[in-house]
Structures are given as structure tokens and as C-alpha cells.
Design goal:
With 436 residues, the chain is an alpha+beta fold. The protein folds into four domains: 40-50 and 359-428, conserved putative lor/sdh protein from methanococcus maripaludis s2 fold; 73-98 and 219-249, RNA polymerase II/Efflux pump adaptor protein, barrel-sandwich hybrid domain (OB fold (Dihydrolipoamide Acetyltransferase, E2P), Beta Barrel), CATH 2.40.50; 103-218; 254-356, Elongation Factor Tu (Ef-tu), domain 3. Helices cover 34% and strands 33% of the residues.
Length: 436
Amino acid sequence: MKDSKLWIAAGVAAGVGLLLLAKVLKPGVDVDPGFNRARLVDVVQVQQQPLAPEAQGFGRVSAKVNWQALSEVGGEVIYRHPDLYAGRLLLKGTELLRIDPLEYQLKLAQAQADRSSAQAQLTRVDQSQSNLKSSLELEQSRLKLVQAETKRKQQLFQQNLISDSELDTQQTSLLAQRNVVQDLQNQLALVPDDRLVAVAQLKVASAAVNDAERRLAKTVFTLPFDGRIGDVNIEQAQVVSAGQVLFEAQGMDIMEVEAQVAMHEFRTLAAGFTAAPVPGKFQVSDLNLAASIEVESGQWSSRWDATVTGIRQNIDPNQATVGVVLEIAQDWSQLDLTERPPLSQDLFVRTTIVGAPQTVLTVPARALRQSSLYLLKQGKLAITPVEILFRSGDVVAVVGSNEGALTAGDTVVMNDLIPAIDGMALRTTTAQESQP
């Protein structure tokens, strides 16, 4: 037993010895003393160029013109257009609904009769004024004759050629004639007031006719523009009351989107504004903003040009966004229902607002490493903090966090370096090709 254990120990020792001998005798790996251990990277140059800032936002489409057919008169619906249903497209001038007009026709006839009566009264006043003027002229001429006759009889009385009674009779005639003239003058003085009353009554009667005509016209509902029918709340033979919303229609020529733009992106746009708001003179068009909207659904997308027409005065406190109003013109004759269908109410869209170009330092967006750039300086990695000014597509406008840290022509590393160690050796594709 003792001899077998010795043999086992001797065998183990011999095996260990052979392993150590094989490791010592193993030939070494050939090492190239000229091999470059620097990491191979792709690079681009920092560009200084004009770049327009872009602000992305989202919003829902609505018609700029949204018409509610509000009933201003009551009565029974005696006509409803056969296509008065939600979603139907109808032309301007189409009669959509009619309320029984009989009651309003009677009121119009009564108002017209009252107006004719008031007009006749005004005519009578004018005629009376003309008659009184003629009568006054006649009586004044007669008064002159009576005065002359009275004067003659007074002279005869002084010569004892006529009696006292005859003179008294003549003087009585003079007083009577003066009274006639005075009475006509009094009547003529009242005519302007009578005329004012007659004119006022005519105006009231005319206003009543206009009101009756307006009410009669309100019994017919005609589409004021080419549009799409919205909600319909009425049926034929139904009795409606004043103030009831019967149906809605939206104009389709101009649509509107209130895009919600983040405050920091709107601030970027505002930095390029060339005009300051001046009450009474400022126009949004002075800001030189361009815009577009885009609709996406699965693999399909479509784009429309838009115009910036307004900026809301309020900021959404929940999302910290600014409302920018865009208008989109639609030409129905050029719409493609498969590739570019018309914009519809409440459609959710993405908006892009482009500001005025600014001369800035730019790099590709994929070169950014959070808030830093990997620069290649003298063959070494320099991790440089930068501030992002704005984005425009796949390009980003940046500025160095420290003055002079980033300039046009600097070399930017495009690769992800793991790990990225400041000062590590790097080489470009061109440098690799020059290696022996």
C-alpha cells in the first residue's frame, strides 16, 4: 500500500514538471514594434453657416369659419334639403332649411300698411303747409285792402261825409281780417311740429317693415359658403323656437391649427425676430416665419404649407407651451383623395415652424453626446461641453460652453467611444491608410 502511494505522488510530480517545461519552451508571439494602438474613428468638420431654427409642435385642425345655423324665429320646418346630413359637401347659396313663413308674411303686410298710412299722413301735413301758405298770402293781400279802405273811411269821417256806424263797421271788418291772418299764421307755425311727428311715425313704420322683412328672410337658411355639414339637430315638420341651433357647417377653403410649441423652442424662434411688436403697426408676417403641417398614419404621410397668422397671448400652465396659430389654404380642385385628402375637423397634426436664418456653428445631430462633443485635437480625444442653440432637421447649431472652446473647422468624432477617456489616442480613416 505504501509503495502505491509513492508511485502516485511521483506521477503527479512528473506531470506538473512536464507542464512547466512546455510553458517555458512555448515560442512567444511576434510583436510589431510599429503597431499603432490609437482607436480608429470617423470625423467631420465644424461648419459655420446660415441655419434656420425649427420649432416642432402639435395641434388639431379646425375650420377657420365655423357657422352655426341659429334660429331667430320660431315655427314649423316645411322644407329640409335632402343632403342636409353630417359630412355632406354643399355649395354656397344652397337652400338648406325653410320655416313656415305665413305668420311673418302677415306681419310684413301689416307693417307695410302702417307705413303707407304714415306716409299718407306726412303727405297731408306737407299739403296742409302748402295750403296754409297760399291762404295766408291771400288773406294778407285782403288785409291790405281792408286797411286801405279803413284809412279812406277815416278820412271821410273826418270830413263828416260818413256816419259813426259806417266807420265802426269798417273797423270791425279790419279786426276780423287781422284775426283771420293771425289764425293762419298760428296754424302755419304748428306745421313743422306736425311734420316732425309725421316723419317720426314714418320712420317707426319703416323700421317695422324692415324688421318684418328681416324676420321673414330668417325663415330661409342658405349656406353662405362652400362647406361641409357638421352636426344636424332638426327634422322636417319639427317645430323650432328662437335661439335653437339647427345645424352647423364648416368652411373648407381655409383651415386653422393652433400649434402648441414648447417655450424653449419658441424662445429660439424669437431670437431671430427682426421686428419688435408695436401696437397698431405690428404684423405677424413681419417675423419672417415659415410653417408647414404634416399628417402621419402608418406608412402614409402628407404635408401642407401653412402661414403663421397669430401668436396667442396666454401660455399653457400645464405644458409650458405657446399657442401659434397657423392657416392652411385648400384648393379643392387640386386635392387628391388618396394621397392628399382634405384636412378635416379635429385632425391631429405635427407642425414645423421655421424662423429666420442665423449664422451659427453646426454639427450633425448624431455627433452630439448628450451636451458634449468629442473633438480630435493633435491625435487625442478632447471631450468638449457645448450648448445646443437649436435643431434644424439632422443638423444642430451649437456653441462652446467656454469661450473659444469650439470654432469653425474643429474636427468632430462621429463614433461612440466606449469607454471615452479624455486624452485617449485616436486616428482617422485617412491616418490608418497611411500606416505601413
